[in-house]
Amino acid sequence: MRALFAASPLAIALSAAALADAPRLPDSLYTLLGAAHETGDAEVFAQAVRLIALTQEPEVVAAGADALSAQAGARARAALGLELMAVEAVTGEALEDAGPDDDEAEEPAGPVSRAIGFVANGKLEHWSGRVRAGLRYDTGNVEREDYTFGLQVTRALAGWGFEGAIDYNYSEIDSRVGRDELIARARGERERGERWTNFIDTRYEQDQLSGFDWKAFAGGGLGYRVYARDDLAWTLRAAPGARWTKDVTGDVDTFAAFDLGSEFQASLTDAVRFTANTNLLFSERSQADQVLALNTALGAVWSVELRYRYRHQFNPEPGFQSNDSRADVALVREF
């Protein structure tokens, strides 16, 4: 017993030392986190958490939120993509912190509830993005049908961000297929300070009316944010990687590749936004892509987008032109 009591002060001292050495938020960032928590707005708090996570490890940010309350810790982990830890943090203490008006625990939102909420307010839990759809139909001397569909999504994960996009374009002219094209992209990105990023990028293209069955690219590299404001954003990227092509005969070729990219976005007015994305892919069959878009808001979640895409093939397949372009107008739904 004497040995036990004698060891207790030593154990306490060692625990205190370990806590003192543990990484913690700087006082200025902790004050910012606390101010966001005091607003009572979950979205404001989540934005503050993601902002602080650009310069601090996710676990450190979550620990700082835990110091505010169990509920704040759970919300911080959810915002950072640490859902499994967030579930453990949501206990009776979190329910007590919710306030006197929240006497009963809320049931987790099911798929139907989430779908209704998405349609009603344009928000999807943990995800943000946009859906784009366009239609054109001409009759007379020429019958023409054009369809375009696009989906873009982003999500913040633990220390990483995820972006994905799918574009599908289809057209018929006098009952003959004029275009049948699918483009898919996915990128994982990790911030390295205020301007630099590391990223992994993948792309896949399938065109039924070209000299290939499909093309794919995978690589990783560095990004640099020239501007990172709400009204003006410009990011430059460079990524070495590999490119695969499958031609109509079924042969799959692999080439070394190097991809250069530029993503520019500017708010011309409160309702009008301009974007210009450029990619230059150096490989055995090099190509350059330019996508320009002008987006005009129609409300909180709806907008109209005028989009123009230009592609130049430096070494096109025999019988195909080196230049290809497309312009379309689409209705966009933000979420």
UniProtKB/TrEMBL annotation:
Residues 1-20 form the signal peptide. Keywords: Signal. This is DUF481 domain-containing protein. InterPro entries: DUF481 (IPR007433). It comes from Alkalicaulis satelles. It holds the Pfam family DUF481.
